[in-house]
UniProtKB/TrEMBL annotation:
Coiled coil: none annotated. It catalyses: a lipid A disaccharide + ATP = a lipid IVA + ADP + H(+). Belongs to the LpxK family. This is Tetraacyldisaccharide 4'-kinase. Residues 91-110 are annotated as: Disordered. The lineage of its organism: Bacteria, Pseudomonadati, Pseudomonadota, Gammaproteobacteria, Chromatiales. The keyword Protein transport does not apply. GO terms for molecular function: ATP binding; lipid-A 4'-kinase activity. PANTHER family: TETRAACYLDISACCHARIDE 4'-KINASE, TETRAACYLDISACCHARIDE 4'-KINASE, MITOCHONDRIAL-RELATED. Transfers the gamma-phosphate of ATP to the 4'-position of a tetraacyldisaccharide 1-phosphate intermediate (termed DS-1-P) to form tetraacyldisaccharide 1,4'-bis-phosphate (lipid IVA). It comes from Ectothiorhodospira mobilis. Keywords: ATP-binding, Kinase, Lipid A biosynthesis, Lipid biosynthesis, Lipid metabolism, Nucleotide-binding, Transferase. Signal peptide: none annotated.
Length: 333
C-alpha cells in the first residue's frame, strides 16, 4: 500500500496539508503534457501502423490494465490485426535501449508485467522508458500493424489514436485530488478526453464493465499440473499478491470458499525465498504476475491463479469500429 493511501478515500488533515503540493503537481502535469505533445508532433512522424492504442489509468494502483492489454491483443488478433505491445518495463533493471521480451525473459531485467503479457498474448513485446523508441524497435523486427502501449496514458511523447482508461469500480478516484493529496496522476477532467472508460467491477455512467475471472490454479513447479479453485474450498491457504490492489485477489479467493491468510506486498515486489515459504505445509496461492518472478524459488506447495478479462461485448465492437475508423482516416492522407 502507498504510505498515503489510507488518506486518499477522503479529505482529512493530511490531505488538506498536502493540497498545495497537489495543485503544483497538477500544474506540472499539464505543462509536461503540452511540452511532450508539441515536441512529439514537431519532431516525430506518425508510426507506420494502422492505429496506436494506449491503455492506462488516472490513479495510482491496480485497475486491471494488464488483463485488458492481454484481452485487447487476443481480440484484435481474432479480427485479423497483428498487434505488438510496448511498455516501460517498470521494475526491470535493464538499461541501454529497447529490449525484446519473451516468456523466458528475466522479470528482474524487463519487468513482471511485460513477461506476463508476452506469455499470455502471444504478441511481440518490447520495453523501453521511451515507448516510441520501443515501438520503432518492435516494428523493425515484426510485421505488426497495431501498437498497444501498456500503462502509457501519461507518456505523451508517444502519439496515440485511441485511449482506454481503466477504472477501479470500487475505489473509483478516491478523494478526487492529484498526488500526493490524492491518488490521481492527472486531474479528473482528463476522463472527458479519452475514447473508452472501462471499470473493473461496477461501472459508472459512460463506462464499460469488465470482470476478472479465474477458476484454476497451476503449480509453479509444473504448470501442466492444475487444480480447480473449488478443490481448495474450505481449506486454509496462504495468498500472496504484489500487485496494485492486493485485496482484489484475496477477495476473489474468499468468494470461492477458501480460508485466506493474506500476504500483501508492494506492486512489482521482488520476492525472496523467505517471503513465500511459511513452514506449515499449507498451499500458497499467488497471482500470475507474481508467479513469473517466484517460479525459480518456488516449491511444490506454490500455485498461481491466472485471471482473464471479460469485458462487456459492446466494448469489443466499439474498439473495432474505432480502429477501423482511424485506419480509414490515415489511409486517405
Amino acid at each position: 500500500m502507498h504510505p498515503l493511501e489510507r488518506h486518499w478515500a477522503g479529505r482529512d488533515g493530511v490531505t488538506l496539508a498536502l493540497y498545495p503540493v497537489s495543485l503544483l503537481y497538477c500544474a506540472l502535469a499539464r505543462l509536461n503534457r503540452i511540452r511532450l505533445e508539441a515536441s512529439s508532433a514537431r519532431r516525430h512522424p506518425r508510426l507506420p501502423v494502422r492505429a496506436v492504442l494506449v491503455v492506462g489509468n488516472l490513479t495510482v494502483g491496480g485497475t486491471g490494465k494488464t488483463p485488458m492489454v492481454v484481452w485487447l491483443c487476443r481480440w484484435l488478433q481474432e479480427h485479423g490485426y497483428r498487434p505488438g505491445v510496448v511498455s516501460r518495463g517498470y521494475g526491470g533493471r535493464a538499461r541501454g535501449g529497447p529490449r525484446a521480451v519473451t516468456p523466458q525473459s528475466d522479470p528482474a531485467q524487463v519487468g513482471d508485467e511485460p513477461v506476463l503479457i508476452a506469455t499470455r498474448s502471444g504478441c511481440p513485446v518490447y520495453v523501453d522508458r521511451d515507448r516510441r523508441r520501443a515501438a520503432r524497435a518492435l516494428l523493425a523486427h515484426h510485421p505488426c500493424d497495431l501498437i498497444i502501449a501498456d500503462d502509457g496514458l501519461q507518456h505523451y511523447a508517444l502519439g496515440r489514436d485511441l485511449e482506454i482508461v481503466m477504472v477501479d469500480g470500487a475505489r473509483r478516484f478516491g478523494n478526487g485530488l492529484c498526488l500526493p493529496a490524492g491518488p490521481l496522476r492527472e486531474p479528473l477532467g482528463r476522463l472527458q478526453e479519452v475514447d473508452f472508460r472501462v471499470a473493473t467491477g461496477t461501472p459508472g455512467p459512460g463506462e464499460y464493465a469488465m470482470t476478472l475471472t479465474g477458476g484454476t490454479a497451476l503449480a509453479l513447479a509444473d504448470p501442466g499440473h492444475t487444480r480447480p479453485l473449488e478443490a481448495f474450498r474450505g481449506q486454509r491457504v496462504h495468498a500472496l499478491a504484489g500487485i496494485g490492489h492486493p485485496p482484489r485477489f484475496f477477495d476473489m479467493l474468499r468468494r470461492r470458499g477458501l480460508e485466506v491468510v493474506p500476504h500483501a506486498f508492494p506492486d512489482h515486489h521482488a520476492f525472496t525465498p523467505g517471503e513465500i515459504r511459511f513452514g506449515d505445509h499449507l498451499p500458497v496461492l499467488m497471482t500470475e504476475k507474481d508467479a513469473v518472478k517466484c517460479r525459480p524459488i518456488a516449491g511444490p506447495e506454490h500455485w498461481f491463479v491466472p485471471v482473464s478479462a471479460v469485458p462487456d461485448p459492446a466494448l469489443g465492437k466499439a474498439i473495432l469500429g474505432a480502429v477501423q475508423a482511424v485506419d480509414r482516416i490515415h489511409s486517405t492522407r
